[in-house]
């Protein structure tokens, strides 16, 4: 249930839906068997849509079914099979072409696009391409004219039936070999399928070089148009402007204008200079009012000696002075230059400002205020800041006084403790001297007793000192002193 189509650009394998479309498959298989499709032109190629063939005359208006050979002209077409419904969903779907009255003959089409729903119910799907999708792509991308006819012939050279489940109907004559093509079939008026297309054939080396240079220039112009440096790839430079090069650096605009003005009135004469140093770059552009004057200067002034230099003159190829709107058609190059100049200028301080910058608040509205309001707000902020500083200064002085009083009290307490300890030591010595005898008798007992007394006194003194050191009592005492 498959057929191999050998074309001039490659081979295609078509699997047939013999169970769903038995009549259409029978017609197609038997036409292939009798070599009906040999040397048929692919006469309609619509890119990403369809490829149409099957007409032996190559016009798209001919063709007949296999039943015409069996039963005569009354059976030239057969009725379309619409059940079950098969859609044109994918590339490579093969369908019989409708003749306009829901009938089919020999012409068929192959889809080169996906989801072609508008073909459903009109053309009967009976197979699909399973091999040779690259060949299908090549045919899809071929060059065609306005009627979608390829400029170079693409033909079906031969058909091979790989599997045929149908028996040959009675009266079918099968040829022993493929028939030779007729002159009418081969004479399509187009480039032959076997002809090689060579544009440079019969041309000289200079002509070939010129053609290649033109192609290269065209591609560069297209690239500049895509970038936005040219308004159009086919734009031509003005014919009244001369390009003069190999100038002496001392040659000025006035010198060139005086020399070239003898050929006719000059609109402008400009020696191109370095934008930093102002030195001449040794070439210039001269614009005449008339093209005839420009041509005269071109023929007369080439290789002329000016300021001890042999100059070279040619027609200008620059389009820099042509005013045009760039991509989008809204702004010219001059507009962009003005915008860049304004952007580079230092911005002047405006007399208006935003309230949000003066007093940042949450959920604040941006209202415009004058500079006077800003100054008032700044002065009020400065006064409030000064008050806060004064408060902080007074607070810091009070803290320093408190620290000084605390230090002085601590030093007095230390001195009192030392004095108490000295007194206690002196009392101990007196007691030891006066009661030496009693102490000698009852030495261990008296020593422990004195020790306990001394410890008790020291503890009482430490407790008093700790109470006096508490910040609350010290502050109360200081306040009572000042009262």
Percent of sequence in beta strands: 15-25%
Low-confidence stretches: 349-372
How many strand elements?
18
Q: What is the typical, i.e. mean, pLDDT? A: 79
Strand pairing plus helix content: what structural class?
A: alpha+beta
Oligomer: single chain
Largest sheet: 10 strands, antiparallel
Query: Which geometry do the CA atoms define?
Result: flat
Describe the structure.
- The protein is of the alpha+beta class.
- Helix content is 41%, strand content 19%.
- The protein has helices at 22-33, 66-71, 133-140, 183-186, 205-227, 253-260, 291-301, 333-344, 355-358, 371-434, 436-441, 443-469, 471-482; strands at residues 2-7, 11-16, 40-41, 44-46, 50-53, 78-79, 93-98, 103-111, 124-131, 155-163, 241-245, 266-273, 280-288, 305-306, 309-310, 312-315, 352-354, 368-370.
- The strands form four sheets. Strands 1, 2, 3, 4, 5, 6, 7, 8, 9 and 10 form a ten-stranded antiparallel beta sheet that branches.
- α10 packs antiparallel against α12 (443-469).
- The protein is flat and about 165 Å long.
- The chain starts with a strand and ends with a helix.
